[in-house]
Amino acid sequence: MIEKADQIFVLLLHWLVGFLPEAWQHVASVVVCVAVIVAVYPALFAVAVLMERKGLGRMQNRYGPNRVGPFGVLQPVADGIKSLTKEDIVPRNADAAVHFIAPLVLVVAVFMGLAVLPMGRNMVLVEMDASLLFFFAMGASTELSVFMAGWSSRNKYSLLGAMRAVAQMISYEVPLLLSTVGVVMITGSLSLVDIVDAQTRYSWGLAHWNVFKPWGLAGFVMFVIASMAETNRSPFDLPEGESEIIAGYFTEYSGFKFALFFLGEYVGMFSIAGLGTTLFLGGWSSPLAALSWIPSWIWFFAKVELWICFFIWVRGTLPRLRQDQLMNFAWKFLLPMTLVNLLVAAEWRFVEGVWLRWIVGMAIVAGAYVLMGRVGMRRERLGPRSYRYAE
Amino acid sequence: MSIAFVVLALLTLAGAMAAVTLRNLVHCALALAVAFAGLALLFLQLDAQFVGFTQILVYVGAVAILVVFAILLTRGADDGKAGTVFSRTWLAGLGIAAAVFALLGWAVLRSVRGLAQAAGTPAVTVENIGQALMSRYVLPLEIVALLLTAALVGAVIVAMYEKEGAR
Amino acid sequence: MLGEGILKGLAETAKNFAGSYVSKERLTTVQYPEERVAPIEATRNFPFLVYDGEDAFAGLRCVSCQICEKECPPKCIYIEKSKDKKPDYVGKPQNYPVRFDIDISVCMSCQICVEVCPFEAIKMDTVFELATDDRFGGLLLDREKLSKSNEYYHTIHPTEATEVDARLAEEKAKVEAKAKAAAEAAAAKAAAAPPAPPAAKPEAPKPTGGAE
Fold it and tell me: Would residue C200 count as lying in a domain?
C-alpha cells in the first residue's frame, strides 16, 4: 500500500500508456510526462504567487489579496485572466522578432532544467550521466534570453536592467557552480539520481543528507545565496528594481509575454530550489527513517515549497543591495568561501577517522567564515557626504 | 547520416551564415549563439554529453554574452549602415578559411583512417573524462589553467592601471 | 559577525508574520470600504469655501479679493469677481465671487490659499472620496460644490474652527465698537456743531489671520 502510494504516478503512467501499441509507448510516456510537468509547475507558480503576496502582506502588517474568492485564493486566476486579456504592446522601435523570441527562450530553457530533477523515487523525466551539467547549461541559456529582452525593447531601462541582470547572473554562476562541486566530489557522480541515492541512507534513524556535514552546510548556505541572485530574487533584484529601472528587462512587455516572463522567473525559482533540494536536502528522501512511509514526491515538493517560503521570507526582510555591494559580495566573499569549501570537501574525502574530519572540517569552515567576514566584507570608511556643486 | 544530423547541421550552418551576413551586430551575435547551440546538439547527437553541455554552458552561456557585451560597450549596435557586409579583402579571407578547412579536413580524415573502425562507439562517461583529465592529461590541464590565470591577472592589472592613472 | 543583522531581520519579519494572526497591533490595515478609521483632525486635502448661517450664498465669507488665485502655485483657482456687492458678516457691502472654480486634478494640497486668505473664507477639507469617471468636469469643483457651512468646518477641524470663530467674533466686536464710537463721536459732534459732517466710515476690518 505504502509502495503503491509512493509510486502512484509511475503506475498511473504505465497504466495509461498500456492502452497504446508497443511501438508508441515510449513516445507516449515522454509526451505525458512533459505535459504533466508543464501543467504542474504553472499550478505551483500560481500557489507560490499567492503565498508570496499573502506572506509579504503579513510581514508588512497588511492582509494581502483577500477580495477574489474566499481569503483571496482565486487571486491568481484573476491575475491570469487579466494578463491573458491585456493588449500585447510592442514598442515601435523594438526589434520585433527578438522581442517576440526572448520570453519563449526563457520559458523553454527554464522548463528544460526541470527534466533532470528527480521529483520522487523513479520519477525523473530524463536520466542522464551529466544531468547536473545539463541543468547548469540550461540555466546559462536563460541569460541570453534576458539580454535579448532588454536589448530588443529599445528602452534605456530595459537595457540597463538586462546589463545588470547579465552581469549579476554571470558573477553568481561561478559560486553557484562551485558550491555544488563539493557534492559532486563526495558523491563521485554528476547524475542527480545518484546524488539522491547517496543521501538516502540512514544511521540512527537520521538521513545522510549533505547539509548535515560541514562542507554540505557551507555549500548549502552559499548555494541558497547564489540561487537567490541567479533567479533575481530580492535582495538581489537589481535587474528589476521597480524603484530604479521600473522592471528592468521586461519593462516593455505586456499581456501574455509579461506573464511568460513572470512564469519563467518563478519556474526558475522552483527548478533551482529543486536542484538545491536534490543536492543538499536529500531530494525526495525523508529526513528520518521513521517517516519513510510518506510518499517520496510529497517530500520533494514539500521541500521545494519550504525553500520558496524561505525566499519569500528573505524578500520581506532584506533591502536591495547596491551594485558594488553585489559584486563585492560575489567575488570577495562567496567565491573564496566556495574555494575553501572545496578544500573542506577534499579533507572530508581523504581524512580518516569520523571525529577528526568533523572537527577539521568545521574548524576550516568557521575560521574561513569569520576571517572572510572580517576582511573581505570590511565596511568602507565613508566620510561625511560632500557635494561638488551645492553649498 | 540521420535526419537529426541533417537538421542540426543545417541549423548550425544557417546560424553561422547569419552571423557573418547580417547587418545588425547584435543579431550577428545572437545568430552565433544559435550556431553554438547547434554545435552542442551535434555533440549530443554523437552521445558526447559532457562536451555538449559544456559547449552550451561555456559558449552560449558565457562566450555569446561576452561578445554581446563587447559589442554594446565598444560601439552602437546600429553601425551597420555601410553598403555591403563584404570587406575589401574578402578574397584573402576566403583563401584563409579554405586553407583552414583543408587542414582540418586532412587531419580528421587521417585520424579516422588511423583508428580501428570496427571498435564501435566506446561508452565515454563523464567519470572517464574526469579520470583522463586528472591522470593522463593532467599536465596540459595545468598548463591551460596557468595560462587562464595569467590572462585573468593581466586583465585585472590592465583594468586597475587605468583607474590609478585617472587619479 | 557577518550575517548577524540578517538573522535579526529575519526574526523581526517572522515575528510580524506570526503576530499578524494574533495581535491587532501587528495587523494595522483597515478593510477600507467596510471599515473606516476615525477621522483625523490634522488631515487635509483640498480647499473648500466656508459660509456662515444657513444660506450658502448669503453667508459666503469670500469677498473675491483674488489673493488666493494669485498665490496658488499650480494656478488651480479661477475666480470671477461680481459687479454688484452683498453685505459680509459685519454688514459691510463686499464683492462676491460669481464663479469660484478649483481644479482638484491640479491642486497640490499645499494650503497656501488658506494661509493667505484675509477673510478666513477658504479652508482645507478632509473628503477624499472624489473619484469620478469624468476626468475634466468631475474634478473641476465650482462655487456650489465648494461652499460648505461653518458647522461642517467645526465637525472636521473643531480646534481650528473654534479659533477662527473667536477671531472673527473679536474682529466683529472691534468693528462694532469702532462704529459705535464713531457714531457717538458723530452724535457728540452733531450736538456741539449743528451742521454735522458725514459720519466717519467704519474702517475695513484689518486682516489678522494667517496672511504674512
Answer: no
Instruction: Please judge whether C1 and A370 are an interchain contact, meaning their C-beta atoms are less than 8 angstroms apart.
Output: yes
Q: Which residues in chain B come in under a pLDDT of 50?
A: 77, 167
Q: Do chains C and A touch (3 or more CB pairs under 8 A)?
A: yes
Domain contains A319: yes
C12 touches chain A (CB under 8 A): yes
Q: Which of B56, B77, B126 sits opposite A137 (nearest CB)?
A: B56
Among residues A365, A332, A334, A335, which one has the least CA distance to residue A347?
Answer: A365
The phi, psi pair for C78, rounded to 5°, reads -130, 125
Q: Residue A383's pLDDT is what?
A: 66
C102: in domain = yes
pLDDT digits (tens, 9 = 90+) for A71-85: 888 888 888 888 888
* Domain count along chain C: 1
CATH top-level class of B1-80 = mainly alpha
Q: B127 — contact with chain A (CB < 8 Å)?
A: yes
Cell numbers of A151, please? 536589448
- Give the domain extent around A247: 88-375
pLDDT of the residue at A223? 92
For residues A182 and A219, the answer to whether their CB atoms sit within 8 Å is yes
Domain of residue C148 covers 47-163
Neighbours of chain A (3+ CB pairs under 8 A): B, C
- Average the pLDDT over A162-179 and give the result: 88
**A54-A229-A337-A354 Cα dihedral, nearest 10 degrees:** 50
Residue range A42-70: average pLDDT? 87
Question: Which candidate in B28, B30, B39, B75 is best for mutational testing of the A interface (most A CBs within 10 A)?
Answer: B30
CATH number at residue C53: 3.30.70.3270
